[in-house]
Amino acid sequence: MAHDHAHDPHNHGIWTHGHVFLGHSHDRAESRAKLAALVTAIFMVVEIVTGFIYHSMALLADGVHMATHVGALGLAAGAYWLARRHADNSRFSFGSGKFGDLAAFSSAIVLGITGIAVAVESVTRLIHPADVAYGDALLIAVIGLCVNLVSAFILKDAHQHDHAQGHAHDHSHGHAHSHGAHANHGDNNMRAAYLHVLADAATSVLAIVALAAGYYFGMGYLDPLAALVGAVVIGSWAYGLIKDSAMVLLDADADPKLSGAIKSTIEQDLGARVADLHLWRLGPGHRGLIVSLVSPDPTTAEQIKASLRKHYPDLSHVTVEVAVCADCV
Predict the structure, then answer these.
(1) DSSP label at 267?
(2) Would the CA dihedral through 87, 83, 246, 281 be positive or negative?
(3) Residue ranges per domain, the chain?
(4) pLDDT tens digits for 61-78?
(5) What integer is the mean pLDDT of 212-231?
(6) With respect to CATH, is domain 20-249 assigned 1.20.1510.10?
(7) Residue 76 in contact with residue 103, Cβ under 8 Å?
(8) Is the dihedral of CA 181, 186, 189, 192 positive or negative?
(9) What is the value of pTM for the model shown?
(10) Neighbours of 300 (CB within 10 A)
(11) Fold classified for 255-324
(12) With contact defined as beta carbons under 8 Å apart, do 224 and 125 qualify?
């Protein structure tokens, strides 16, 4: 029986390797998240200060609301910092790449709660209409949209760069995957930050349309109705992000199609039988694999690993256990 971690004390360097499983664009994503958080925080302070100066509750309320987005973006930036800081910490057996998924999961829950709160308030307003200061509210919605567009522009490059990297890795070994596999392969932390900004931008656009209709045409019912539509969209995005990040945190199979392809490679190309196989995500762009197999011919774990890495270059941590048994296959 051969194991990939067995080693000769005189050749220790051959058998050891690092456990840094950060995304390929980690530094870029961290800097963009920090910048977006800073920009949002500046506008938040401006709104709160001007709200006090001009005695505008609408400005104050939007400033407080914007604070939740500063928190979400700050959480994303903090996760990148923690992942980088603990990248070489041996206490994290498979690296610190999941800090981002933990932040994404937390951020998605906050996003979902926000969507539920907006939906409840919207239904209440539909049943019991309230007087709306359309002019002031419209101004706030426009300001909010401008802030979100700036933040979205800052985050867009990092988000698209990460998606492109994940897309390239998924197809580098010639296997087709579903959209869900791409989402699971990308950076959920950046995705969470980007979704927070997009969600607020979408609700701002809906609010501008609804408030303008109320201001110019007296169609007051569109205000809570638009908010309800926005809440449904936010809830849908939050659910998808919670599902994807939770699967990563629970070490679920990173890609069932890829697992099947790896098993086929071992059994068809290498002539061995797979007894046990575990594939999971270590961080953005990194997967871990543990496989136990039975081979009819003498072979080593290193030979199996070399073959797997040639076919699947994004396997960052591979553990192979081989049992040689001519009569077992």
Answers:
(1) I
(2) negative
(3) 20-249, 255-324
(4) 677 777 888 888 999 999
(5) 88
(6) yes
(7) yes
(8) negative
(9) 0.78
(10) 16
(11) Alpha-Beta Plaits (3.30.70)
(12) yes
